[in-house]
């Protein structure tokens, strides 16, 4: 049976860096953001449900009208919740299929998701790993990476679940503060998973 890691953390925490290390160490990682974009762009069931929610103009010649979707998402806070209720179940189904494809081939796989806990994906993983970084480090990284202003990054941080709540639900915390080496922490995680593989596979969190 495949043990599934749920890798989470706020914007700028360094989830993608940890994901790359896991891949280098032979652990496949499902990037939920990338896959959600693919599903939104190609899934006909999602297109139908978005049309019912937003209107027929969301599709243009059978393709998703991305600019209209973006305008809808940012128009009101509850609009994102409506879209997420459509997309998240499909992402969850896709992840389950993806993880099952590694049965007999891999003992551990991972899902990277910034909103792993908020989206209800915790029920589909066996072990939650939080990547933590100090707020100022997160702000600086996100500003540099995404070309955002400080105010924009802070607003995104404030819109996500706070670190303390994430930490309480995590089974393992990786500190990515620019000083604490990451590789030893990832190796410790893999060692822990190896030692407890039978337990993790038989007892869902």
UniProtKB/TrEMBL annotation:
SUPFAM superfamilies: P-loop containing nucleoside triphosphate hydrolases. It is found in: Cytoplasm. It is an enzyme of class 2 (transferase). ATP binds at residues 12-17. It catalyses: 3'-dephospho-CoA + ATP = ADP + CoA + H(+). Its main location: cytoplasm. One of its GO terms (cellular component) is cytoplasm. GO terms for biological process: coenzyme A biosynthetic process. Signal peptide: none annotated. InterPro entries: Depp_CoAkinase, P-loop_NTPase. Keywords: ATP-binding, Coenzyme A biosynthesis, Cytoplasm, Kinase, Nucleotide-binding, Transferase. One of its GO terms (molecular function) is ATP binding. Gene3D superfamilies: P-loop containing nucleotide triphosphate hydrolases. Its EC number is 2.7.1.24. PANTHER family: BIFUNCTIONAL COENZYME A SYNTHASE-RELATED (PTHR10695:SF46), DEPHOSPHO-COA KINASE-RELATED (PTHR10695). This is Dephospho-CoA kinase. It comes from Bacteroides pyogenes F0041.
């Amino acid at each position: 049976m495949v043990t599934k890691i749920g890798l989470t953390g706020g914007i700028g925490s360094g989830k993608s860096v940890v994901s790359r290390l896991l891949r280098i160490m032979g652990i496949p990682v499902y990037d939920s953001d990338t896959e959600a974009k693919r599903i939104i762009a190609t899934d006909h069931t999602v297109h139908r449900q978005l049309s019912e929610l937003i209107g027929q103009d969301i599709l243009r010649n059978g393709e998703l009208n991305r600019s209209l979707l973006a305008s809808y998402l940012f128009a009101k806070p509850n609009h994102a919740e409506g879209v997420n209720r459509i997309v998240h179940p499909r992402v969850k189904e896709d992840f389950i299929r993806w993880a099952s494809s590694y049965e007999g081939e891999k003992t551990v796989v991972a899902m990277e998701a910034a909103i792993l806990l908020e989206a209800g994906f915790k029920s589909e993983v066996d072990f939650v790993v939080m990547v933590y970084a100090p707020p100022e480090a997160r702000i600086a990284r996100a500003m540099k990476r995404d070309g955002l202003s400080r105010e924009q990054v802070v607003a995104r941080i404030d819109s996500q679940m706070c670190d303390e709540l994430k930490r309480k639900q995590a089974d393992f915390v990786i500190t990515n503060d620019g000083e604490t080496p990451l590789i030893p922490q990832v190796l410790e995680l893999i060692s822990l998973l190896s030692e407890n593989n039978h337990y993790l596979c038989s007892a869902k969190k």
